[in-house]
């Protein structure tokens, strides 16, 4: 049973966390390069938010947005 858990340790420490170890060592030389993944996620989230707000505006202008406060039973 001990070898099973050592195998799990090897998988996570030496294989799955290897990219994160690389980013940790990269931070010493370039902070921006090490945080590239964070910048990519922020760009994706910002573009999704802009798209969502544009879609809300389209439905608001078309008049199909339901503004009834009784849409949920707990709001009555």
3D structure, described in words:
- One of its GO terms (molecular function) is glycosyltransferase activity.
- This is Uracil phosphoribosyltransferase.
- Keywords: Glycosyltransferase, Membrane, Transferase, Transmembrane, Transmembrane helix.
- The chain crosses the membrane at residues 32-53.
- It comes from Flavobacterium petrolei.
- The chain is mostly helical and 76 residues long.
- It has one domain.
- Helices cover 72% and strands 0% of the residues.
- The chain is built from four helices and no strands.
- The longest helix is centred in the middle third of the chain and has 27 residues, at 36-62.
- The model has no long low-confidence stretch (mean pLDDT 88).
Overview in brief:
Keywords: Glycosyltransferase, Membrane, Transferase, Transmembrane, Transmembrane helix. This protein has about 80 residues and is mainly α.
List the helices and strands and how they pair.
Blueprint: H1 2-16, H2 18-26, H3 31-34, H4 36-62
**What percentage of residues falls in helices of 4 or more residues?**
over 70%
Order of helices and strands: HHHH
Number of domains: 1
Total beta strands? 0
Major pleated sheet: none
Report Rg: 24 Å
Cα(first) to Cα(last) distance is 58 Å
On the 0-100 scale, what is the average pLDDT?
88
Strand content: under 5%
Treating each run of at least 4 consecutive H or I residues as one helix, how many helices?
A: 4
* Classification by helices and strands: mainly alpha
Query: pLDDT under 50 segments (min length 5)?
Result: none
| Outline | elongated
Provide keyphrases for this structure:
0% strand; mainly alpha; elongated; 4 helices; 76 residues
